[in-house]
Design goal:
Oligomer: heterodimer
CATH topology of the largest domain in chain B: Rossmann fold
Radius of gyration of chain B: 29 Å
CATH class of the largest domain in chain B: Alpha Beta
Structural class of chain A: alpha/beta
Strand content of chain B: 5-15%
CATH class of the largest domain in chain A: Alpha Beta
CATH superfamily of the largest domain in chain B: P-loop containing nucleotide triphosphate hydrolases
CATH superfamily of the largest domain in chain A: P-loop containing nucleotide triphosphate hydrolases
Helix content of chain B: 40-55%
Number of domains of chain A: 4
Largest sheet of chain A: 6 strands, parallel
Low-confidence stretches of chain A: 556-569, 591-598
Low-confidence stretches of chain B: 272-290, 448-452, 490-503, 627-634
Shape of chain B: globular
Mean pLDDT of chain A: 87
Shape of chain A: globular
Largest interface: A-B, 68 and 80 residues
CATH architecture of the largest domain in chain B: 3-Layer(aba) Sandwich
Largest sheet of chain B: 6 strands, parallel
Number of strands of chain A: 18
Radius of gyration of chain A: 28 Å
Structural class of chain B: alpha/beta
CATH topology of the largest domain in chain A: Rossmann fold
CATH architecture of the largest domain in chain A: 3-Layer(aba) Sandwich
Strand order of the largest sheet of chain A: 3-2-6-7-1-8
Chain lengths: 714, 772
C-alpha cells in the first residue's frame, strides 16, 4: 500500500467535498482512491461501524479488506455489505415489521431464508406436477435449468422493481406473436406465481422476496431507515455500475442523509447485465453527488495495448463513440513491440500444448511472474480446465482456476459418504451398486482400488445390502485383501451394524458421527486427507441447510404433491430425499473451492467474465476459443431475457434481430475493452481450426481480430 | 495456384456471375472441382463485401475437407480466401443457424444433439411402451388367414421390429413435413375420418419428443426443422444471413429434401412467389437475374438413391433445372467407353422400354460423354471384353464362390489395380468377406467405415474396461496392449515388413510382457503389492532386464490410472488419453469423447464406470455418429487399397471408383421391376394384404395434411405406389453400380434363398443388348 498516489488521486482522497462521484476506466486508480479514502476515514476518529463499504459482489471487497488488515487498524468493525446482503439482514432483523405487510400467512412464526439450492428444491416440487399436466411442452430445456430460469425471473422483477406478475406480459410483448412462445411464458408465469404464493404461505424467503421486502416495505419504514442511516454515516460504494436499478433507487434516497459518500463508477463496466446490473441508473447517481471527478489515465496498459484496444473495439463496433484515450503508463522498454500474438493449431489439444509451452517460456525466459499471466475463455468446460491445469502442473507452473464450484455429486469423497449412508439406512431402499461400494471402501478404508474391489465382490450383496464379516472369507482371500484392511473393514462393518439397529439420525448427524467415530481415525481414508475433509464438511453443511429449511415446512407437507414415502414422523428419511435430489441435480450442492492461499503466485485459468469481476490486471492474457460466439452472444434462455427484463426497455417494442446484433456488438466491445484495460503488455490469441467439440468457429471476435491484424486482406 | 483448363461445359459454368443455375452432372464429371473453381472465381472477382462468404453446402463431412483443400489450391496465398467461404453439410449449417438464436425456437443455451443411436434407443422405448399399453392394436392389421400359433409368433417376434422401424419412418417423415406432435394432434382432432396409423405414429412421436425435451436435447432432424422455422419467423435474421451468404453453391443436390431445398431457397433470397414465373435472365456473358438469389445447384438426379421416408426426390432437382437457367455436365473421364455405353443404354432402355411405363422417368439424360482429346483426365482405353454379364443361375453361396474365384484368379496379376465387390445389402457383403477370408485374400471392409474415432475410442474403452474391473489380469493385459499400441498396432504401419531390428526386439519384449500379465493371477501383487509379496521383485532373478524395465514402466502408468479412477469420467478419459495417445487427431478425438462421456454421465445419473465403458465401446464400434470432427469421417480413398479387395454396398460406393467392379445379386428380389411375381422387402407377410405399413402411414399423413378432398386416404394405394418408388430407386442404384467401374465390370445374380428368384429385368435387357 505504499505506492505513491498521483497528485490527482491524492487530491481526491483529501478532498473536503463530502459526496462525490468518481468515474473512469479500469486501471485508472479509482479503487486505490476508494481504499485510501476508507483508511483515511478510519484514522479520523470516526467509529468504524459508521463506515459502510458497499459492492455488488463480495469478491470486489477484497482490496478494501486487505488494505484495512494491512494497515494494522484495530478499532471497531467496518461494515462490508452488498445490497442483497443488507436486504437479508434487514428482513431478519425487522421480520415483525415486514411479515404481515408482505402477506405472509404466519407472521408470528420466524422466517426461513432459502438458499439458491433450497429455492430450486421447492420450485422443483411445485413445477413437477405441472410438467405432467403438459406445461412447457414446446420448450426443450433441462429440467433443472427450467427451474432456475423461473427463479431468475422472480429475481429480475425484484431487482428491477416491477410486479412479478407482469413477467410473462413483458416477455410476450417483446416477441412477435408466436403463440407457442407465449404459452411458454404463461406457463412460466403460472409457476412463478405458484412459487411466490407457496413462499408466502410457508414463511419462505427466497432471494427475490428478501430483496422486495427490503426495497418495497422495510426501506419505507421510518424505523428501518433510521436504523440504517444512523448506523452508517459514511459510504464507499465501488462498482456502482454492476448493481441493479432497485439498489440504485435505495441509494438515491439514502445518500442525501449521509455525512459522506464516495461512489465509484467504471465507465466500461456493466458486465453483470444478466444479473440485472444497470450502468444507466448507476450513472444517474452522479446527479445527487456534490461533485463528479474523472480519472483518465491507465496504470496498466502499455501504449501498444491501448492502441490495440482502440483498433479492436472500432473493428467490433464502428458505431461506438470511443472513450477518450487514456494516458498510458510509461514503459519505454517495450516500445514498438506488438501487443498481440497468435497461437495457431489445427486441433484443440495441440493449442493447449502450445499455450503451456509459451507460458513456460514466458516464465523462464522473460521472467514473468505466473500471477501476471491469465488464461481466459468465454466458457470453461471441466474438460478444458482439467486439461490446461494438468499441462501447466506438468510443466511445474503453479496454476489456479477461478471456476467457483463443482457439484458435490461429482466429488468422490461425498459420493463415498453417501454410499455409506445408504448402507446404513436400509429403510431408504437405495441399494448401492457393487461398484459404488468398492469406491466407498476405496475412499473410506484407505486402500487401493484392486483390493477395494476384491473386498466388495466378496462381502457385499446388493439385493439385501448385506455386508458379511471378514472372518467368513476364505483364508487365501483374506491374505490377498490383507489383514490390516480386514481389520478396518471389520470396524466399519460393526459400526454400520450397530447404527442399523439404533434409531436413525438426521443425515447430517449421521455423517458427523461416522466421520468422527470411524472415517477420521488413523488408517481410515479421511485421516489427514484435508481435501476429503473439506468436501465432507461442505456436504454436511449442505445437508444441514437443506434439513433446516425443510423441517420448517414439514407439517405443511409439501410432499402432498407427490408420492413421497416420507412420513412426517421420520425426519431421518429427509436424508433420502436429499440424496435423490442430489442425484437428480435439483440440488447442485456446489461449494466454493476455497482460494488456495499458498497458490497466490499462480497462473489463473478463468472464464473471461469472472476475470473482469476480479478487478485485477495481468501482464499477459491468453484468449482461448477466439472463434467462439460465446464471447458475444448472450446466453440463450427461452424463459427469460436480460434486455427485455430491464428498466430501460420500452415495453411497447419488439425485440428484433437488429437489437440482438447490436446488443451482441456492444457486449463484445465492452468485454474486449474491459479485458484490454486490464492487460499490461500482451494478448495471445489461441486459435484452433477445430474447436473443443470439433466444429470450425468463426465468431465476431475472430473477425474483428482479422480486421486488426490483416487490414490489407479484408 | 493450380492451372485449370476447363472442359467445354465447365467453361460455360465458369461464365456464371449470378442468379440461379441448375447443373445436371453425370457420374465422374468433376462436380467438386467445378464448384471449387467457381467459388474461387467469385472470391477472386472481389464482389464479396466485408463479412460476406460463399456458402458451399454438401452432403457428407468427408466432402467438406475435400472442398477446403481444392479451393485453397486456387490461391497463391491462402489468406486471400480466409473467411471468404464456408463449407458445411446441411446438418452443420442448420446447427450453426440454430446456435445463433436457440431461444427463439424454444431451446436453451446448452441444448444438446442426440446422435442416431441415442435417438434409436429413446424411440425404441417409446414404441415398446406403446406396444405394452396397446397390445391389441395390431390385431386389425395382422393377416386374418394366419393360424393362431403363427399369429402369436408374428406378434412376439416381428411386431416389435416392425413398430421400431415404423416409428423411425413416421417420426422422420413428420419432422420433414414440419409437423410437431401438437400440430399433428390438432389436425387429427379435426380430421373427418379416423386415421389409425397416424394416431399410432402420433402417440410414439409425442412420447419421443417429450423424452428429448426432458433431456434438453434435439435430434438431427429437429435441427433442420428448427433452422427452417427460425428463418421463416425472423425476417431480420434471415436478411442478415442472406447478406452473409450472397452466393450459395450446393453439391449433391439430387438428395435434397423439400425442407433442405426450402432452407437454401430462403437463404439465397428466394423470390416472392409472384415472381416465380418471371422469365429467367441468363446470358452467355453472365448478367444476373433480378429478384433472384445466387444459388447454384449441382447434382445428378440419376444417382438419387435415398431413403424413402423423406420428401427427397430427384424430381425436386429436375424441376429446379427445368425452371431455371441450366447447364449439363455430360463429360466424364472416369470410365472406358464400353462402360459408358452400357450406362447410357440403361438410361435409354428405362426411358423407352421398361415394361412399367410409370417408372420410365427413373433415369433421364444427360447421357455420359467421354472427355475431349487432350483432357488431363482421359478415359481409359476401350475394352469391350472387360464387361461380363454372368448369366449362370447361381445359388447365393455359389455366386459368392464364383466371384471370389474370379478375384483370386485376377488379383495376382493386377496388384497395382483397385477392385471392389458391390452388394445391395450389408449382410451380403459379410458373406463375401467371409469367403475372401477363407481364401486368404486381403480385403477392406467398407461396410462400416474404419475410422480414427473407432481406434481412439476402442483404445480408451479397453483402458476403462480394466479400470472397471481392476482385479482382472486379462483386462490388465489388454490395457497393456493399448499402452503399447505402437507395437500391437491399431495404428499398424502400411508396410510392416520394413520393421527395424529394434522394432522387432521391442515387439518380442512387449509380447512377453503381455503374456506374463495375462497370467499374473493376483493382480494386486503387481499393481499395488505388499512389501513382502511384490510379484515384480520375484521376477528379478528369472527375467531379462528389458522385460523387468518394461513392467516397471507400465506399472507407473497403471498406478496413475488407478488413482485417476475417482475423477469425473471426462477427466479420467483425458488423463488416459494424454498417456497413451501422441497423434493430434487422437488427442482431439479423446477430448471430444471426454465431453460426450461427461454428457452421458450427466444424462444417466446411475451410470458408473462399467456402463460408461460399454458406451465407449459402442462408439468404438462406430454405431454412433457425431456432429463435428470431419476427421472421424475423412472419406474413403479406393486408391489407398490397391491390390486388396474392397467390399461395400452400392449405396456406400457412391462417389467412388475402381478399376474393376463386381456387381452382385442383380436379381428380382434385390432389384424388383414392378412385375407380378416380384417381392418387396418392406411388405410384410404377416400383415393383411401384405401391407407396407410404413407407406400406408405416410399416405395417411399426406391425407391429413392435404385440404383437397380428392387426396383422401385409400388403403393399399400407398403400398402399390411405394413399389413403384422402390423400382425406380433400384434402377438408379443399378446405374450407380455400373458407373463405379473404370475398366472392368462383372455382373452376377443368384436365385435367392428359396431358389425362385430371377435376374433383374434391366440387367437381362442390358445383357441382351450387350451380347448383340
Amino acid at each position: 500500500m505504499d505506492a505513491p498516489l498521483t497528485s490527482e488521486q491524492q487530491a481526491l482522497v483529501d478532498s473536503p467535498t463530502a459526496k462525490f462521484f468518481l468515474r473512469g476506466r479500469a486501471g485508472a486508480g479509482k479503487t486505490t482512491v476508494g481504499v485510501r479514502r476508507a483508511l483515511r476515514l478510519l484514522t479520523s476518529s470516526l467509529p468504524a461501524e459508521s463506515i459502510l463499504i458497499l459492492t455488488p459482489q463480495r469478491s470486489l471487497q477484497a482490496p478494501y479488506e486487505d488494505a484495512i488488515l494491512q494497515s494494522g487498524y484495530s478499532g471497531g468493525q467496518v461494515t462490508f455489505a452488498t445490497v442483497g446482503g443488507l436486504a437479508r439482514r434487514m428482513c431478519d432483523l425487522f421480520w415483525p415489521l415486514a411479515a404481515e405487510r408482505a402477506g405472509f400467512k404466519s407472521p408470528d412464526q420466524p422466517p426461513v431464508f432459502l438458499t439458491l439450492e433450497t429455492a430450486q428444491y421447492y420450485m422443483a416440487h411445485l413445477v413437477r406436477p405441472k410438467l405432467d399436466e403438459g406445461y412447457f411442452a414446446s420448450v426443450t430445456i433441462d429440467r433443472n435449468r427450467l427451474y432456475s430460469q423461473i427463479i431468475d425471473n422472480l429475481n429480475k422483477a425484484a431487482l428491477i422493481g416491477f410486479d412479478h406478475r407482469e413477467i410473462a406480459e413483458r416477455l410476450a410483448a417483446s416477441e412477435n406473436g408466436d403463440p407457442e412462445q407465449h404459452r411458454i411464458h404463461a406457463d412460466a408465469q403460472a409457476c412463478a406465481n405458484l412459487f411466490r404464493e407457496y413462499c408466502l404461505e410457508h414463511n419462505l424467503l427466497d432471494y427475490s422476496l428478501q430483496f422486495e421486502i427490503f426495497t418495497n416495505i422495510l426501506w419505507d419504514d421510518p424505523l428501518v431507515r433510521d436504523y440504517l442511516t444512523q448506523t452508517h454515516r459514511h459510504l464507499i460504494y465501488d462498482n456502482v455500475e454492476e448493481d441493479p436499478p432497485r439498489a440504485h433507487d435505495i441509494l438515491r434516497e439514502w445518500i442525501p442523509n449521509l455525512d459522506s459518500a464516495l461512489l465509484i463508477f467504471d465507465e466500461g463496466g456493466g458486465f453483470r447485465r444478466f444479473l440485472s446490473a444497470d450502468p444507466v441508473t448507476g450513472e444517474a447517481l452522479g446527479q445527487i453527488c456534490e461533485e463528479e471527478a474523472r480519472l483518465d489515465n491507465s496504470f496498466v496498459m502499455s501504449e501498444e495495448v491501448a492502441r490495440l484496444e482502440t483498433q479492436l473495439t472500432e473493428a467490433i463496433n464502428p458505431a461506438l463513440t470511443p472513450f477518450p484515450s487514456p494516458e498510458v503508463r510509461e514503459r519505454g522498454a517495450e516500445g514498438g513491440v506488438r501487443a498481440y500474438d497468435f497461437l495457431l493449431t489445427r486441433f484443440y489439444p495441440e493449442l493447449l500444448d502450445e499455450i503451456a509451452k509459451e507460458i513456460q517460456r514466458l516464465v523462464s525466459e522473460e521472467n514473468i511472474s505466473p500471477e501476471e499471466i491469465v488464461i481466459l475463455a468465454p466458457y470453461l468446460s471441466d474438460s478444458l480446465r482439467f486439461s490446461l491445469m494438468h499441462r501447466l502442473e506438468q510443466a511445474e507452473i503453479p496454476v489456479r482456476s477461478h471456476r467457483p464450484s463443482r457439484s458435490l455429486r461429482d466429488e468422490p469423497a461425498s459420493h463415498a459418504l453417501l454410499t455409506l449412508a445408504s448402507l446404513a439406512h436400509p429403510g431408504w431402499h437405495i441399494h448401492p451398486a457393487r461398484f459404488d461400494v468398492a469406491y466407498a471402501f476405496l475412499f473410506s478404508l484407505g486402500t487401493d482400488l484392486v483390493r477395494a474391489q476384491l473386498l466388495s465382490e466378496i462381502v457385499y450383496r446388493q439385493k439385501d445390502m448385506r455386508l458379511s464379516p471378514f472372518e467368513e472369507i476364505q483364508p487365501d482371500m483374506q491374505e490377498r485383501v490383507t489383514y490390516a484392511l480386514g481389520e478396518r473393514y471389520a470396524s466399519l462393518r460393526q459400526w454400520l451394524e450397530l447404527y442399523r439397529e439404533s434409531e436413525p439420525l438426521p443425515l447430517d448427524h449421521f455423517l458427523r458421527k461416522i466421520f468422527g467415530e470411524i472415517l477420521s481415525q488413523p488408517g481410515f481414508g479421511f485421516h489427514q486427507n484435508l481435501d476429503a475433509v473439506r468436501v465432507a464438511a461442505s456436504l454436511i453443511e449442505s445437508v444441514e441447510k437443506f434439513r433446516n429449511s425443510i423441517e420448517q415446512t414439514f407439517d405443511n407437507s409439501i410432499f402432498d404433491h407427490r408420492n413421497s414415502n416420507i412420513e412426517s414422523s421420520n425426519i431421518a428419511a429427509l436424508g433420502k430425499e436429499y440424496l435423490t435430489m442430489l442425484q437428480d441435480g435439483v440440488i447442485a450442492a456446489s461449494y466454493l473451492e476455497a482460494w488456495n492461499p499458498q497458490q497466490d503466485n499462480a497462473v489463473l485459468v478463468a472464464p473471461a467474465h469472472s476475470f473482469l469481476m476480479m478487478n485485477r490486471p495481468a501482464t499477459i492474457q491468453f484468449w482461448l476459443d477466439v472463434g467462439s460466439s460465446g464471447w458475444h452472444d448472450r446466453l440463450a434462455q427461452p424463459l427469460t431475457h436480460p434486455y427485455v427484463l430491464s428498466r430501460e426497455w420500452n415495453p411497447s417494442r419488439e425485440w428484433t434481430d437488429a437489437d440482438e446484433v447490436q446488443s451482441a456488438k456492444e457486449a463484445l466491445a465492452r468485454l474486449v475493452s474491459g479485458l484490454l484495460y486490464r492487460c499490461r503488455s500482451r494478448v495471445y490469441l489461441g486459435l484452433s481450426e477445430l474447436g473443443e467439440s470439433g466444429f470450425e468457429q468463426r465468431g465476431d471476435l475472430l473477425r474483428a481480430w482479422q480486421k486488426v491484424s490483416n487490414p490489407e486482406i479484408t | 495456384m493450380q492451372p485449370f483448363t476447363p472442359r467445354p461445359s465447365q467453361e460455360k459454368i465458369l461464365r456464371y456471375t449470378g442468379g440461379r443455375l441448375g447443373i445436371a452432372a453425370v457420374p465422374g464429371a468433376g462436380k467438386t472441382h467445378i464448384l471449387s473453381a467457381l467459388a474461387a472465381q467469385i472470391i477472386h472477382s472481389g464482389v464479396l463485401q466485408n463479412e460476406q462468404e460463399v456458402l458451399i453446402v454438401t452432403l457428407v463431412n468427408s466432402a467438406v475437407d475435400n472442398f477446403e483443400t481444392r479451393i485453397k489450391r486456387f490461391f497463391d496465398n491462402p489468406l486471400q480466401a480466409l473467411y471468404k467461404y464456408r463449407v458445411r453439410t446441411l446438418h452443420a449449417l442448420a446447427h450453426e443457424i440454430v446456435r445463433e438464436k436457440p431461444s427463439r425456437v424454444g431451446l436453451e443455451e446448452k441444448f444438446s444433439i442426440v446422435d442416431d443411436r441415442e435417438a434409436n434407443s429413446i424411440r425404441h422405448e417409446s414404441a415398446m411402451a406403446f406396444l405394452s399399453a396397446n397390445p391389441d392394436f395390431f390385431d386389425a392389421y395382422l393377416d386374418p388367414q394366419m393360424d393362431a400359433s403363427k399369429r402369436d409368433w408374428a406378434r412376439k417376434k416381428h411386431l416389435p421390429d416392425l413398430l421400431d422401424s415404423f416409428a423411425n419412418v413416421f417420426i422422420r417423415s413428420a419432422k420433414d413435413r414440419r409437423l410437431t406432435p401438437e400440430s399433428l394432434r390438432a389436425r387429427l382432432d379435426s380430421s373427418p375420418a379416423p386415421l389409425p396409423l397416424v394416431e399410432l405414429g402420433w402417440s410414439i412421436y409425442a412420447d419421443y419428443q417429450r423424452a428429448l425435451a426432458y433431456r434438453g436435447a434435439v435430434d438431427f432432424d429437429d435441427l433442420i426443422r428448427l433452422a427452417l422455422m427460425l428463418l421463416e419467423n425472423d425476417a431480420e435474421f434471415l436478411e442478415r444471413l442472406q447478406y452473409r451468404y450472397p452466393y450459395i453453391l450446393e453439391d449433391e443436390a439430387q438428395d435434397s429434401s423439400r425442407t433442405q431445398e426450402r432452407i437454401l431457397s430462403l437463404l439465397s433470397g428466394g423470390p416472392p412467389s409472384s415472381l416465380r414465373d418471371a422469365p429467367p435472365i441468363f446470358t452467355e456473358n453472365g448478367g444476373s437475374q433480378r429478384g433472384v438469389g445466387n444459388w447454384v445447384r449441382v447434382g445428378d438426379p440419376n444417382q438419387a438413391i435415398f431413403e424413402t421416408f423423406t420428401t427427397a426426390s430427384p424430381e425436386l432437382l429436375r424441376a429446379f433445372i427445368r425452371e431455371n437457367p441450366h447447364v449439363d455436365m455430360p463429360e466424364s473421364g472416369r470410365s472406358q467407353p464400353s462402360v459408358i455405353a452400357l450406362a447410357n443404354q440403361l438410361i435409354a432402355w428405362v426411358m423407352n422400354a421398361h415394361p412399367v411405363p410409370e417408372v420410365r422417368d427413373a433415369l433421364q439424360p444427360p447421357y455420359i460423354q467421354p472427355v475431349p482429346a487432350g483432357d488431363p483426365q482421359p478415359n481409359p482405353p476401350e475394352d469391350a471384353a472387360a464387361i461380363k454379364f454372368i448369366a449362370t443361375k447361381f445359388s447365393p453361396e455359389d455366386e459368392v464362390e464364383a466371384v471370389v474365384k474370379s478375384i483370386a484368379k485376377w488379383l495376382p496379376d493386377n496388384m497395382d489395380k483397385t477392385v471392389a465387390v458391390l452388394t445391395p445389402r450389408n449382410n451380403r457383403g459379410v458373406d463375401v468377406t467371409n469367403a475372401l477370408r477363407a481364401k486368404g485374400i486381403e480385403f477392406i471392409e467398407f461396410l462400416n467405415s474404419t475410422t480414427d474415432t473407432r481406434a481412439a475410442a476402442g483404445s480408451l474403452s479397453y483402458l476403462l474396461a480394466y479400470l472397471s474391473e481392476p482385479s482382472s489380469a486379462n483386462k490388465l493385459a489388454k490395457a497393456y496392449q493399448v499402452y503399447r499400441r505402437d507395437i500391437f498396432g491399431t495404428k499398424s504401419k502400411a508396410d510392416s515388413s520394413n520393421a527395424s531390428d529394434d522394432g522387432t526386439a521391442g515387439r518380442a519384449v512387449a509380447e512377453q510382457v503381455h503374456a506374463m500379465l495375462r497370467k499374473v493371477g493376483e493382480v494386486e501383487s503387481f499393481v499395488s503389492p505388499r512389501e513382502d509379496s511384490d510379484w515384480l521383485s520375484t521376477l528379478q532373478e528369472s527375467e531379462a532386464e528389458p522385460v523387468i524395465n518394461e513392467l516397471n514402466k507400465f506399472r507407473v502408468h497403471i498406478r496413475r490410472w488407478l488413482d485417476a479412477v475417482t475423477l469425473p469420467v471426462d477427466q479420467l478419459v483425458l488423463t488416459l488419453a494424454q498417456d497413451v495417445f501422441t497423434d493430434a487427431v487422437d488427442l482431439a478425438l479423446a477430448h471430444k469423447l471426454a465431453l460426450v462421456m461427461r454428457k452421458a454421465a450427466d444424462d444417466h445419473a446411475g451410470w458408473r464406470l462399467p456402463e460408461l465403458t460399454a458406451e465407449l465401446a459402442v462408439i468404438a464400434k462406430n454405431e454412433r455418429r457425431f456432429i463435428g470432427f470431419s476427421a472421424d469421417d475423412s472419406g474413403f480413398n479406393p486408391e489407398a487399397h490397391k491390390g486388396k479387395v474392397v467390399v461395400t454396398t452400392m449405396h456406400k460406393a457412391k462417389g467412388l471408383e475402381w478399376d474393376r467392379v463386381y456387381l452382385m445379386s442383380a436379381n428380382n428380389y434385390d432389384f424388383p421391376s414392378g412385375q407380378g411375381y416380384d417381392q418387396y422387402i418392406s411388405e410384410k407377410w404377416f400383415l393383411r394384404n401384405k401391407m407396407n405399413l410404413e407407406a400406408e402411414a405416410l399416405a395417411q399423413l399426406t391425407a391429413l395434411e392435404s385440404n383437397g378432398e380428392f387426396d383422401w386416404y385409400e388403403e393399399g394405394a400407398a403400398t402399390s405406389k411405394s413399389r413403384m418408388d422402390y423400382v425406380r430407386e433400384r434402377l438408379r442404384l443399378l446405374y450407380v453400380g455400373i458407373t463405379r467401374a473404370k475398366r472392368d465390370l462383372i455382373v452376377t445374380w443368384n436365385s435367392g434363398r428359396q431358389g425362385d428368384a430371377t435376374p433383374n429385368l434391366a440387367v437381362e435387357a442390358l445383357r441382351g443388348w450387350w451380347e448383340k
